[in-house]
Amino acid sequence: MATARLGANSTAQMRDIHLKVDHSSLPGPHKFCLAQRIPRRFHLLAAKCFWGILLILTCSPSLGLSQGLAYEHRRTLMPWEIHILTVDPTQYRVVAERATGKGLGRETVSSMAKRRNAVAAINGGFFRIGGKFDGEPVGILKVDDRWYSDPGLPRAALGWNLDQTWMAIDRLLMDWQVRIGELTYPVDGINRVRGATETLLFTAAFNATTLAGGGGCEVAVWPSGRRQVFREGNASIPEEGFVVSFGSRSGIDVAEVPPGAPVEVTYRFRSETGQADADEEWKRADFIVGGTPILLRNGQLMGQYEAEKVKESFITTRHPRTAVCRTSQGSWIFVVVDGRRPQTSVGMTLDELAGLMLELGCEDAMNLDGGGSSTFYLYGSVVNLPSDVLGERPVSDAILILNPDTE
């Protein structure tokens, strides 16, 4: 292992560190271990053995960048290129950042990181690509007090507070409702494409207008209590207010809404893993980023990824991956695995990624968006090799590591 202590302008030096291993000198049995196809039911058990063996076969430059921040670049025989950043949250601030600062649109991780003067950053949750909803988060996203999206499916969520004293990973759903006078309307979701039978809530974090098509009706609400009904869709969203959008087959008649009645929006969290106090716990979160699936919980491999409604190919195919975890000591660990490069890094299955997070000492871990989105930014540069032909992909959101005195 090579060890160095570097300053803020050391990216080029980091990239020039290469350790070489003479593969022919390694013991024979590793060839069988790395190549053998393992039945799906044995994958998680194999992951523990696999990573124990692979540690012996790893080139691993480890760079202590500064107090509370350590970077490690692993090259393995698979081949894999793995980038690992360990962060002490008492020394650095971890924040979520929305691309362009708006509800729609995309931006590269490096652009977001430079805009906020971040020390390091990785890509965040999944999102829609193309069309008028380009960049819409697909999964939960909250940044400070601004709600950008909620979980449409029971999928992994990472939450933490501004003072870095609380962090959690769980599988969440949310229940929203709007109360107007004595009438209560259940809400199917927020800030996304509205179906004909749905009732949605749109906030100013989404866009200037709802982009909802014709049919149904929408009620814009200002903080003063003023209301305006739109019957053609695409209502303007008040800056500090919201719009309740009723689909054409939602069964809601806004004519029954009494004029001047007070309007209140409420929500609650539901844990799909059985956490009893999820609502109280998660309402502490200043930042929430979605992903899928949970990889580890309480230091144990989860394995049942299908509970998060993900496709089998997403589980078993090797892709570039991004993951995040917390350790029992309270540190954060951020991981990016390059992929789709047969000569240098093939990517990981979810079982392989879970095994890596377990080997790193993670207590709770989850998978974030991967593929061409997987990006690892450190001290002014992207240090991994994103798999898109055009290079770094613009994404919906990112997780940034800031110096404590950075706004």
Give a written overview of the molecule:
The protein starts with a strand and ends in a 5-residue tail after the last strand. Among the domains are: 3-92 and 296-402, no CATH class; 182-261, no CATH class. The protein is mainly beta and 407 residues long. It is built from seven helices and 26 strands. It is elongated, with a radius of gyration of 23 Å. β2 (62-66) and β3 (69-76) form a beta hairpin. α3 packs across α7. The model is unreliable at 1-41 (pLDDT under 50).
Oligomer: single chain
Strands of the biggest beta sheet: in what spatial order?
A: 1-2-3-4-22-21-23-19-20
Basic shape: elongated
Uncertain parts: 1-41
Measured as a percent range, the helix fraction is 10-25%
Distance between the amino and carboxyl termini: 36 Å
Mean pLDDT: 86
Secondary-structure-based class equals: mainly beta
How many H/I helical runs? Answer: 7
